[in-house]
Specification:
Blueprint (H helix, E strand, L loop, with lengths): L4 E5 L12 E4 L1 H8 L5 E2 L3 H6 L1 H25 L3 E6 L6 E6 L1 H10 L9 E2 L4 E3 L1 E9 L3 E11 L22 H4 L2 H30 L1
Parallel strand pairs: 4-9
Antiparallel strand pairs: 1-2, 1-3, 5-7, 6-8, 8-9
Length: 209
């Protein structure tokens, strides 16, 4: 396994160190990035001493930057970022909301937030509300509420089981007949039975005689 390189930083590199710091880095990072870009070199006592003043200035700037970031974090806590985007009727955005979109809106709202400070795991692809973390370094962070609104009034479709309409059972011809017609029919049947009953009574009387 290759040993780490020990290098003297010639300038401040975020998440690595300040100018004048002696750091240990992986060989590939040293050969492919730091050394070719003249950002570091092999440390010597003379070179370390020559960078002492530059390191003191970097420390003062870092302290000032941290104070400014602490103030921004305090202001950001609970802040809301409003974004308006085009979407379809289901609320799906035609374009995703990215770290840069959130950073640009925060800058427009008066917060100096670099895109790299926006911790967004995946782009936002739907309208709605989401909590997003803004972080500087390891210990300076705050959560903001990102609200993505549609650019027009939409009604979000919901899936629901179709309701069955009530269908009354088919009535028989007799049940479907109007009440008046049924009464009239019963009356006519009663009248038609009367001559038959009279004739029967006359025959029974004749037999007795």
């Amino acid at each position: 396994m290759a040993r780490n390189y020990e290098l003297l930083l010639l300038e401040t590199i975020e998440n690595l160190g300040l100018v004048g710091d002696v750091v240990k880095v992986r060989p590939g990072f040293a050969r492919n990035y730091l050394l070719p870009n003249a950002m570091a070199e092999a440390p010597t006592p003379e070179k370390i001493e020559s960078l002492r003043a530059a390191r003191a200035i970097a420390e003062a700037e870092l302290s000032k930057q941290r104070a400014a970031r602490e103030a921004v974090i305090a202001r950001l806590s609970g802040a809301t970022v409003n974004l308006i985007r085009a979407c379809n009727d289901q609320g799906v955005l035609y374009g995703a909301v990215t770290q840069r979109d959130i950073s640009d809106q925060l800058i427009a709202d008066g917060y100096g937030i670099d895109m790299r400070a926006v911790r967004l795991n995946n782009p936002i692809r739907r309208v709605g509300t989401q909590s997003v973390t803004i972080q500087f370094g390891r210990d300076l962070l705050a959560d903001v509420i990102v609200v993505v609104k549609p650019d027009r009034i939409i009604e979000l479709e919901t899936s629901a089981a179709p309701s069955r309409e009530y269908e009354p059972e088919q009535e028989t011809a007799e049940e479907a007949a109007p009440a008046d017609a049924k009464s009239k029919s019963d009356s006519e049947d009663s009248k038609s039975d009367q001559p038959t009953k009279s004739a029967r009574k006359t025959r029974e009387k004749s037999k007795k005689d």
